[in-house]
Amino acid sequence: MPTARSPARCVRADLFISVTGFVLLGLLCACQIAAASPPPLVVRVGDQVARVPVVAHPEGGAAIRGDQLAGALGGQLVDAGNGTWRLELGGPAIGLTLLAPFAVSGEDALPMPAAPFRSGGRVYLPYAFASDVLPRVLTGLNYDGTRAELRRFALVSRRPVVPRGVAEAAARVASEAAAEVPAPRVVSPPADRAVNRKRVVVVDAGHGGRDPGTTVLLGDGRTMSEKTVALQVSLKLQRALEARGVGVVMTRTRDTLIALHDRGPIANRARGDVFVSIHVNAANPGWKNASASRGFETYFLAEAKTEDEARVARMENEAVKFETSVETSRSDPLGFILRDMAQNEHLRESLTLATLVQGGMKTVHPGTDRGVKQAPFSVLVNSFMPSVLVEIGFGSNVAEARWMVSEAGQQQLAESIADSLVAYLAQYERKVGGAEP
């Protein structure tokens, strides 16, 4: 016969089960949270170990606080103003800019999968800055992906200890040998190698012919057409570059349509050092107050990282619908591999070039600095050299369109872009020492 259980005992038993359930549920949630939280970045400098928390990056992936990373490595993150920072770690400083997906070391721009961002008054850097960029820039820094550990080793240069007698004998022999050797004769280089060859910039005026690009009514009886503004600015850019001693090749000099896939080969046949394509932007009709959108931006060839970058690429790539010819080599696997290799070779240089062009326009443009961006523009695919596409302003903004059609506005744009291109070519000369590209 079953024994009756008292009500008090039943209550205690139910309470025990409920409390146990809550404890187990809490432990399960804690385990899930721990599993979801990424492990910190371990920074090891000699015997010192620090752990830098890892957070989610708004663009996807992971991020770390810049000041914490700098402190862990024995350096500092310095606010340089205007949304820029310098990471100082005892060697060359590394430049960083909000919303710019690259770091700058010396004259090199180093791509990152995402841009730095600010949150709660702190600057956060993409995790790849620590895992990929820093080890490439700084000697003695190594990242261990299996342990999520960044190690910095102190490099100590030691002079060998030489017995005194041996050192004195070596110095005496060196002195006697130097006295017998005549002074080196200075030989002038051959005339054809004494100066660098004339650099060539290929200027591409976007759209043309039956492809007008962006068009807008200016409200005073005039109509702005992208193909016309792009050509006018490009011709002024040609004159500005030639005045600075730079050779220029134009993909078009009149109102005619050049196929997108033909523009790069024109640059390649001309042995261009730089390719720059001039365009006029247009706002996304779905944006709130789209007609007020304004500003300038410079693109280099890469996969789009945002929907707006992809939208601009689609808009400019639509020119293909006006073309009648078809490029058959695009289906050739070997051709695709060779094009990909050629573009990867120039990716970093294109990023550097885009940064200089964007910075130059910032000094003259009345609109917003929208930054350096990346997108898969068809016109850039076949130009095997540092290449950028410049959106000089929004044609969908009437006030900005009027500035772009003005003689003064076009001349200011041309002069600033020319100065940036010359600055890039000067940097390139210093890197290669005047060698052929």
Offer a concise description of the structure:
With 437 residues, the chain is α+β, with helices and mostly antiparallel strands. The chain contains 13 helices and 21 strands. It is globular.
Class derived from helix and strand content: alpha+beta
CATH homologous superfamily caption of the largest domain: Zn-dependent exopeptidases
How many β-strand stretches? 21
Task: Please identify, by name, the CATH architecture of the largest domain.
Answer: 3-Layer(aba) Sandwich
- Spatial strand order of the main sheet: 17-14-18-21-19-20
Radius of gyration: 30 Å
Distance between the terminal alpha carbons, to the nearest Å?
100 Å
Secondary structure: helix percent: 40-55%
Under CATH at level 1, the class of the largest domain stands as Alpha Beta
Average the pLDDT over all residues and give the rounded result.
Answer: 77
Shape label: globular
User: How many domains in all?
Assistant: 2
Give the count of helical stretches.
13
| Largest β sheet strand count, sense and barrel closure | 6 strands, mixed
Mind sketching the topology for me?
Blueprint: H1 7-36, E1 41-45, E2 48-52, E3 54-56, E4 62-65, H2 66-72, E5 76-81, E6 84-88, E7 94-97, E8 102-105, E9 108-111, E10 117-119, E11 122-126, H3 127-137, E12 141-144, E13 149-152, H4 164-180, H5 191-194, E14 200-205, E15 215-217, E16 223-225, H6 226-243, E17 247-250, H7 260-269, E18 274-281, E19 296-301, H8 307-317, H9 333-345, H10 347-362, E20 369-375, H11 378-381, E21 387-394, H12 398-405, H13 407-432
Parallel strand pairs: 1-13, 14-17, 14-18, 18-21, 19-20
Antiparallel strand pairs: 1-2, 3-4, 4-11, 5-6, 6-7, 7-8, 8-9, 10-11, 12-13, 15-16, 19-21
Helix pairs in contact: 6-13, 10-13
